[in-house]
Amino acid sequence: MKVYRELSEFTPLKNAVVTSGTFDGVHIGHQKIISRLLQAAKETKGESVVITFWPHPRLVVSPDRENLRLLSNLDEKVDLLANLGVDHLLVLPFTREFSELSSEKYVEDILISGIGTETLVIGYDHRFGKNREGGFDYLKKNSERFKIDIVEIPRQEIDSLTISSTKIRKALQNGEVKIANELLGRTYSFQGLVKKGRQLGRTIGFPTANVNVSKKYKLIPALGVYAVKVHLRGDILKGVMNIGSRPTVEGTGITQEVHILDFDDDIYGENLKVETIDYIRPELKFDGVNELIAQIKRDCEAARKILS
Asked: Which part of the chain is the Riboflavin kinase domain (predicted)?
């Protein structure tokens, strides 16, 4: 898949089959749209093009943007779309100025002049242009003038999936990772560098990796203990993760600490990818370290059973 970070990098194609959207998480609803895109490209002997936007539009124009958390950062989104077999990915920089672009200008300057769109694949509820003024009805009404064939993914197909990025975010924020994973069509993951903490886990026999997620807008699941898979040095390992403030040992701030089962290497400074498999329990405060150790042992056993 070829990736373009500006419209000026893109050379218009002879037969571009295009879809567009934010595609946060690239969940199974999005995958349905991409599948239809690839099918249309095959039928018309064209090349598939996905247009997406970065930053996420809500990070730019939403009054609640400071609280928005996303299912995927840009690198993750690129990888997910590449794995689906898309030919071209155009990432348009989203700014306030871009948000003021009319639907007419969007079609003429980007879809037609910039990309060479012959076929456009969109969901029934897709909106674009200033104040979301453009949509399927607008495109269908002007299809002869624009000389673009419109392929609609009808309401019943999208609604039957009952999926949205918002629904998945809420599931993760409630600790319902199995529901989120089902809607995503894969396990939800995040990654970051392992940074040095207070190393209290090592003193009680359960060394943990404190995963520092650098993107503040990346969604971290609800506080609690989880069974996880850990990608490290090309291997996939089993682990148990605590997301929280470690109240028993007077922790400060929220951390993501992973204990990798049957593993004791020094991995400070290394990159760790964590897949959240299942929720085990909420974070609790114990009366002392001995109670904490006993609970961690139970958590490890629970994780082993879940991951076996």
From this structure: 183-308
